[in-house]
């Protein structure tokens, strides 16, 4: 799939950014694979992440971070730039601000194409994924207090359903918690990050197992 075709598909399939409103119902959640689990709260705190799609000549990539080892929560996990909404912020404003704070990604370098489905986390957040398009390789500098590493993963890998797997861990209470995972080399992309990517895949490609299956539709 060419970069132009991918960008067109994103613009067509994503929710327009202007449609965002506080308190939108989640389209995906940590509970999709754990329907019997009790929710910690129904009063979800609003958050947003930026999914930066980088248009490289050899193919699109997605910019991801590895969280700093000194953080109190989710230490060392793979994540998108993002965080809680400040009072009065929209999801787009929060996602761009957090990307600037975490990796010094200039907001002017990001073309916002739209939103994917809001995601409910098991920790009580309602996360809006904001998809941004970067025409050139970004210049980034990770904030050492928050980010240990910035890297890019090929779009085709992340959007290939053959690379999406269900993993689990066992809780002390004898319960088993399932989650999506997309291991890439030595990096283990899992949990909310993988769940958001799975939701983006479903929005863009439906039940198709591989984005190549959509080529005929895009060419029509």
What does this structure look like?
The protein is 22% helix and 33% strand. With 220 residues, the chain is α+β, with helices and mostly antiparallel strands. It has one domain: Nucleoside Triphosphate Pyrophosphohydrolase (Alpha-Beta Complex). The strands form 2 sheets. Strands 1, 2, 3, 4, 5, 6, 7, 8 and 9 form a 9-stranded mixed sheet that branches. Strands 10-11-12 form a 3-stranded antiparallel sheet. A hairpin with a 2-residue loop joins strand 2 and strand 3 (59-67). It is globular and about 50 Å long.
Mean pLDDT: 90
Structural class: alpha+beta
Q: Give the helix proportion (percent range).
A: 10-25%
Uncertain stretches of 5 or more adjacent residues:
208-220
CATH H-tier superfamily: Nucleoside Triphosphate Pyrophosphohydrolase
CATH hierarchy, class: Alpha Beta
Radius of gyration, in Å, reads 17 Å
In short:
With 220 residues, this protein is of the alpha+beta class.
Properties at a glance:
single chain, 220 residues, alpha+beta, Nucleoside Triphosphate Pyrophosphohydrolase, 9-stranded mixed β-sheet, 33% strand
Strands, helices and their partners?
Blueprint lengths: L2 H11 L14 E2 L15 E12 L2 E9 L10 E2 L2 E3 L6 H13 L7 E5 L3 E2 L4 E10 L12 E8 H4 L6 E6 L5 E9 L2 E4 H15 L9 H5 L1
Parallel strand pairs: 1-7, 2-8
Antiparallel strand pairs: 2-3, 2-5, 3-4, 3-9, 6-8, 7-8, 10-11, 11-12
């Amino acid at each position: 799939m060419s970069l132009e075709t991918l960008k067109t598909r994103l613009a067509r399939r994503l929710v327009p950014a202007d449609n965002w409103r506080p308190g939108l119902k989640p389209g995906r959640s940590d509970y999709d694979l754990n329907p019997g689990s009790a929710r910690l709260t129904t009063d979800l705190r609003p958050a947003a992440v930026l999914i930066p799609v980088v248009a490289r000549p050899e193919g699109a990539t997605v910019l991801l971070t590895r969280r700093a080892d000194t953080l109190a929560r989710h230490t060392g996990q793979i994540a998108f730039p993002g965080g809680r909404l400040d009072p009065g912020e929209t999801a787009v404003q929060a996602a761009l601000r957090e990307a600037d704070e975490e990796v010094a990604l200039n907001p002017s370098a990001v073309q916002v194409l739209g939103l994917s489905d809001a995601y409910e986390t098991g920790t009580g957040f309602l996360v809006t994924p904001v998809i941004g398009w970067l025409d050139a390789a970004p210049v980034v500098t990770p904030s050492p207090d928050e980010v240990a590493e910035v890297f890019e993963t090929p779009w085709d890998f992340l959007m290939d359903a053959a690379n999406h797997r269900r993993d689990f861990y066992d809780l002390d209470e004898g319960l088993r918690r399932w989650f999506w995972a997309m291991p890439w080399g030595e990096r283990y992309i899992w949990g909310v990050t993988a769940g958001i990517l799975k939701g983006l895949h479903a929005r863009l490609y439906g039940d198709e197992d591989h984005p190549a299956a959509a080529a005929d539709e895009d060419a029509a």
